[in-house]
Amino acid sequence: MVLVKAVRRVSLLGIVLVISGCAHAGLGGIVMEEEFPVVHPKDVVVTISNYGKEIIDGLALGRRFDNPNVSPSPCGSEYSARQVPGRNIDHDTWWVGYSPYSEGIITYVEVPSEEVINKALTRLKAALEGAGWRTVEFGAGSATSQAVLRIAAPEKGYGAVLQGITSVPGSPRIGVNISSPCLRHPEAR
Asked: Which of 169, 175, 150 is nearest to 160 (CA)?
C-alpha cells in the first residue's frame, strides 16, 4: 500500500513536471531526465525571428524593432547541462555552447505616445489570435499599471510577452520578449 502511494506520488509529480516544463527532480535518489526536443539553435532563431515579424506586422505601427538582441539561455537543471563542442569564432548570434537551452529575442518598439500602446496591443492580440496564437494574459494599461500581452505561439512552447513601458519620460515604448521552449542541441555531448 505504501509502495503504491509512493508510485502514485512519483507518477503525479512526473506529470506535474512534464506539464509545467520543470526539467529535473530528485526524489530520494530517483532522477527524472529531461525530455526536450532536439533542435539546432539556427533553426530556433529562424522560428523566433519569423514570430517577431508577425508581431511587428500585427502592431501595425509602421516601425521596426529597436536593438533586437538574440539571447540564448541555459534551460533545465544545471546538473544535466551538456557541453557543445567548438567555439563561436564567427560570433554567430544563434550560437549556444550548452544544452539544454532556449533562445529568445529581447527588443522594443518606440511608440509616438502612451495612448498608442493599448491600441497597438489590442490590434496585435486580434491579429495573432487570427493566426492561431492563444492569449494567456491581456491587460490594458491604466494610471497604475502597464499594458501587458502574454501570448502563446502556434508551435508548442514558443511565445511572447509584450509590455507597455512608460517609465522613461518622453520615450514610450512596447517591450518585446519572444522565446522558445527548452530544447536540446543536436551536437551536445
From this structure: 150
Q: What is the pLDDT of residues 123-170, one digit of tens each?
A: 999 999 999 999 999 987 655 558 899 999 999 999 999 999 887 777
DSSP the chain: -HHHHHHHHHHHHHHHHHHHT---EEETTEEEPP-PPB--HHHHHHHHHHHHHHHHHHHTSS---EEEEEEEEE-S-GGG-EE-SS--TT--TT--SEESEEEEEEEEEE-S-HHHHHHHHHHHHHHHHHTT-EEEEEE---SSS--EEEEE-SSTT-EEEEEEE--STT--EEEEEEE---BB-TT--
* CA 170 to centroid of chain Cα atoms: 29
Q: Residue 99 half-sphere exposure, CB side, CA atoms within 13 Å? A: 20
Grid coordinates belonging to 72: 540564448
What's the CA gap between 108 and 171, in Å, rounded? 11
Torsion angles phi and psi, residue 92, rounded to 5:
-70, 135
Q: Helices 41-59 and 114-130 meet at what angle, rounded to 10?
A: 120
CA 139 – CA 122 distance, rounded (Å): 9
